[in-house]
């Protein structure tokens, strides 16, 4: 008996059968079994247990959120308390400054009143005698030389100022810093003051600070100090003296001429004008370092050198 062979010839081999099995079972059997066991356990879990698990998870999330909120609230409260504390300290310091300033002003007022009383009593006592009058005349000359008395009269008003900011500069994040070269320096004021003294000035003040024999003009950082008092731009130099003589001699000073040219080249302000009426305050009294007893018969004139 002869069997009919399938088309293509012969029986299916063992390799072909294995390939069919692989194509039919794409999932690993062990993995499929584990997934089946997990699904079975989930299906067997009672509904109450599942709800408890979900409720416990929500409680944990709510607790974490509550703790986070509490931490944020505590942090904000501490920050607010710190800011409030700093504001209170700052306000207290400002109050102390105002109190001390008021106290200093009151003491200054009392000092000036007592000084006027002492001066008046002294003048009345000295005027009664010829010797006393000589002492008063000598004292008046010394006070005038020490710039201890306010003065008033015609003179010059000299103004020095920094260059104006560049119109093209960025006022927000650009070149806001002024050029140091185009700023008034202490040496400029020293040149002007020395030239004015040489031109015949009788009294000088810078921004209301009267210059005396021991006055100093210095530069500290970016500020100009006159007798350790800061003065600001623009700098006004008030001068008592003959306006015509002062202006003529002042402008012809070589250092002043060079300084004016420098200011013009850098766009700085340098001008002066004659004034009919200027008032200058008294300078601060110098510290008393020594004193001598006035001899009987009144003060004597200084001996002539060489005598």
Any overview of this molecule?
Helices cover 51% and strands 15% of the residues. It is an alpha+beta fold and 307 residues long. Among the domains are: 54-128; 149-164 and 181-280, Protein of unknown function DUF881 (Alpha-Beta Plaits). It is elongated, with a radius of gyration of 48 Å. One of its GO terms (cellular component) is plasma membrane.
Structural class category? alpha+beta
State the share of residues found in helices, binned by percent. Answer: 40-55%
| Text of the CATH class of the domain at 149-164 and 181-280 | Alpha Beta
Mean model confidence by pLDDT = 82
Pfam families: DUF881
Transmembrane segments: 59-76
Family: Belongs to the UPF0749 family.
Keywords: Coiled coil, Membrane, Transmembrane, Transmembrane helix
For the structure shown, list the relevant keywords:
307 residues, alpha+beta, Alpha-Beta Plaits, 5-stranded antiparallel β-sheet, 3-stranded antiparallel β-sheet, 7 helices, elongated, transmembrane helix
Give the topology.
Blueprint: H1 14-24, H2 29-44, H3 47-127, H4 130-145, E1 151-161, H5 186-198, E2 203-206, E3 209-210, E4 217-220, E5 223-226, E6 229-231, E7 235-240, H6 243-251, H7 254-265, E8 269-280
Antiparallel strand pairs: 1-7, 1-8, 2-3, 2-7, 4-5, 5-6
Helix pairs in contact: 3-4
Keywords: Coiled coil, Membrane, Transmembrane, Transmembrane helix
Coiled coil: 97-124
Transmembrane segments: 59-76
Brief overview:
Helices cover 51% and strands 15% of the residues. It contains seven helices and eight strands, in the order ααααβαββββββααβ.
